[in-house]
Amino acid sequence: MKRVTGIGGIFFKARDPEAMCAWYKAHLGIDVLPWGGAVFNWSDDDGRPTGGSTVWSISASEGADDPAPFTINYRVADLDALLAVLREEGCQLVGEPQDGEYGKFGWVLDPEGNKVELWQPPPGQ
């Protein structure tokens, strides 16, 4: 069974998200869109699209539900199967998996207590 197939997104928090977005756009050339992030489309070595993407996004740290300064969202092929295997392996799952418009999400803690987000994209993505 495949486990992680890529990085679905990198989401981090900032005290001043607009200033952070402007800095990344000006100095690193990231095409930050009005919603506060960018999408990097995957391609092969020849530059041909391969059907996946990674989201990069900055949000406000103030008032956020999760105190962690960042979230790395790992793309998976079969969330339910992977969560079952992780449970069997003794990993600590967090909450109940969620299924919605953007796909399925599940969470597990790594050995240092970091919350790891697992994402199965909706069909066709």
UniProtKB/TrEMBL annotation:
<protein>
    <submittedName>
        <fullName>VOC family protein</fullName>
    </submittedName>
</protein>
<feature type="domain" description="VOC">
    <location>
        <begin position="6"/>
        <end position="121"/>
    </location>
</feature>
<dbReference type="InterPro" id="IPR004360">
    <property type="entry name" value="Glyas_Fos-R_dOase_dom"/>
</dbReference>
<dbReference type="InterPro" id="IPR052164">
    <property type="entry name" value="Anthracycline_SecMetBiosynth"/>
</dbReference>
<dbReference type="InterPro" id="IPR037523">
    <property type="entry name" value="VOC_core"/>
</dbReference>
<dbReference type="InterPro" id="IPR029068">
    <property type="entry name" value="Glyas_Bleomycin-R_OHBP_Dase"/>
</dbReference>
<dbReference type="Pfam" id="PF00903">
    <property type="entry name" value="Glyoxalase"/>
</dbReference>
